[in-house]
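Work Package 3 committed the consortium to producing structural models of liganded targets before the mid-term review. Because experimental data for this complex are still outstanding, the team generated a predictive model from sequence and the ligand definition alone, so that downstream docking and mutagenesis planning could proceed in parallel. The input record is reproduced below exactly as it was submitted to the modelling pipeline, together with the SMILES string for magnesium ion.
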Amino acid sequence: VGLLFTCVCVSTDILLFLFLEHKVIIVGLDNAGKTTILYQFLTKEAVQTSPTIGSNVEEIAVKKTRFLVWDIGGQESLRATWNSYYCNTEIVILVVDSTDRERLTVTKKELHRMLAHEDLQDASVLVLANKQDMKNSMSAAEISQSLTLSSLNAHSWHVQACCALTGEGYVLDWMFIVCFLIQFCTKKVLYK
Ligand SMILES: Nc1nc2c(ncn2[C@@H]2O[C@H](COP(=O)(O)OP(=O)(O)OP(=O)(O)O)[C@@H](O)[C@H]2O)c(=O)[nH]1
Ligand SMILES: [Mg+2]
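The resulting structure, written out as tokens with the ligand in place, is given here.
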């Protein structure tokens, strides 16, 4: 009976995941490439961007699953407003400029502060190590270590190297499948 109950719960979770809309926020420091990533997802092209004041929001559908994706401006003066986007967020995408070694400690501080917020307790984290086309870019492993991702015991996370200009490193379907797997296999299913 226990196994049957678990199977029913898992199936319900999968169906709910597939047919409901999910809220995603894209955060990271200014110039990390967040807006470029959002529109690369949508248009499959590198669009010309300017610094985001406030946010951009787009709905992205992957088969029947819809994601409401908020791209939030990363300038220092805007970071205090990030928390107004946290409510009901299921997936946090943190974009890192992999060439920006100097500000990685600032990113780390922002990430850990953000994940301490009660509205993000159930959110999964996808870190995109962007700008891999640039010389001297840090690897995904280096970024993972500098951000101390392994200390994120309360959150499911995954780090992925990518290049927003070419779209290399994140095939949209694949990325959301990863989000689905980390969110449901590690949290919702196992801890039910
Ligand atoms: N070489 C390279 N440049 C990139 C890449 N992704 C983004 N850029 C460039 O980085 C700059 C900043 O990109 P945006 O997408 O506007 O950055 P953002 O994170 O949205 O910045 P804010 O809106 O200020 O928070 C632009 O000139 C992009 O063309 C990448 O993968 N490689
Ligand atoms: Mg932007």
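Reviewers should note the following from the model. Helices lie at 2-19, 34-43, 76-79, 104-115, 140-146, 172-189. These observations will guide the Year 2 experiments.
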